Amino acid sequence: MKFIADGMLGKITRWLRLLGHDVKYSNRLDDAALIAAAKKEKRILLTRDFELHKQAIAKGIIAFYVEGETGEEKLAEIAKRFDVDLSVDMATSRCPKCNSRVRPISKEKVADEVKKSTFAHYEEFWKCRKCAQIYWQGAHWKGIRRELDKTREVLETMREEST
Question: Using CA atoms in the order 47, 50, 53, 55, what is the torsion angle rounded to 10 degrees?
Answer without folding.
Answer: -140
